[in-house]
Amino acid sequence: MIPYGRQDISEADIDAVIAVLQSDFLTQGPMVPRFEQVVAAHVGAQHAVAVNSATSALHIACLALGLGPGDWLWTSPITFVASANCALYCGARVDFVDIDPHTYNLCAKALADKLEQAERDGRLPKVVVAVHLCGQSCDMQAIDDLAQRYGFRVIEDASHAIGGKYQGEFIGNGWYSDITVFSFHPVKIITTAEGGMAVTNDPQLAERMNLLRSHGITRDPQQMTQAPDGPWYYQQIDLGFNYRMTELQAALGISQMDRLDGFVARRHELAKRYDQLLAGLPVTTPWQHPDSYSGLHLYVIRLQLENSSKSHRKVFESLREQGIGVNLHYIPVHTQPYYQQLGFKTGDFPQAERYYAEAISLPMFQGMTDEQQYQVLESLSFVLSGRHP
Ligand SMILES: *Cc1c(COP(=O)(O)O)cnc(C)c1O
């Protein structure tokens, strides 16, 4: 089976992890701060807080922004559940904004309309999570304009987007948001096995996330309520978690960062070739906004069902049967049973639901060969037209 995503591990990555195993620190050593510096410098952010997953990063980002009971967080229904669950962890409520039919990201126009209504109803969101689906940035300038006007805070869920750019600058530079979150799960662009990071230009947000990732405990006398009792002293000044990243993970991350630009460039080559190979088939290939240089975590096609005798499900099953590890990103979050029980219904976000009925993620990963890519074309061609290309 050709997987839809797969990590790329080099000898240098392996050596970096082994060196940590032989060192004094497996956790809470020098590698995590070094990894944070490398990522912050690369994306152009002032501060970075490494954690054990992007899910944890979203949670502490929400807490740092003060999200709590009585507040609303809005995000896109076409995302991994973690982009919405982070609100529920904080006791806040979730709502969704339908997607743009071209980029499949949260639609800035739909956001503007919903904000107007929410202002009348007195239920404006405190936080909006803008998810850069497939690695393509949301329309951050428009979202930031709305944030200024309505007074909400913005988290970029850039789990798909490290190494990508918006308006010519790396995603994560924080021009149009408060905090940006990255994921380093093995299917994502770079990996630390499990892992995530939150970057920000606000020192207070960074300090608060730093505290929350490690039990709410500080060793900084400046943050304490009294002078230290002695050199052993620490204080718990907030209720935090153990969301720390290990030294092994950070060393792997540092080593992977050396190849980030090459990873994204290779994904662009693969995407361009897919665009060409698929041109004659009844599918819609990904549309890229001119402001965007996508990280291209995913290559999602939409079936033109009106031009095909095969159902979405049939095409998907046939591809899997032919050894193509296709996937579907994502099932609209508001249709998950947990969210339906919160009151959401099928039909609430029609663009998202239509997307779900047509989308298929084709294999896309660093080590994918031209031959494997041709195999994807052959299999897709076979199921859609009954012929080989
Ligand atoms: C993968 C992903 C996450 C969660 O990342 P983890 O590191 O696995 O916790 C969150 N949001 C999006 C959009 C993702 O794709």
TrEMBL record:
Gene3D superfamilies attached to this UniProt entry: Aspartate Aminotransferase, domain 1, Type I PLP-dependent aspartate aminotransferase-like (Major domain)
Active-site residues per Swiss-Prot or TrEMBL entry: K188
GO molecular function, one term: transaminase activity
Positions of modified residues (N6-(pyridoxal phosphate)lysine): K188
InterPro entries named in the record: DegT/StrS_aminotransferase, PseC, PyrdxlP-dep_Trfase, PyrdxlP-dep_Trfase_major, PyrdxlP-dep_Trfase_small
Superkingdom to which the source organism belongs: Bacteria
Cross-referenced CDD domains: AHBA_syn
Family (UniProt): Belongs to the DegT/DnrJ/EryC1 family.
UniProt keyword terms in alphabetical order: Pyridoxal phosphate
GO BP terms: polysaccharide biosynthetic process
Protein known as: UDP-4-amino-4,6-dideoxy-N-acetyl-beta-L-altrosamine transaminase
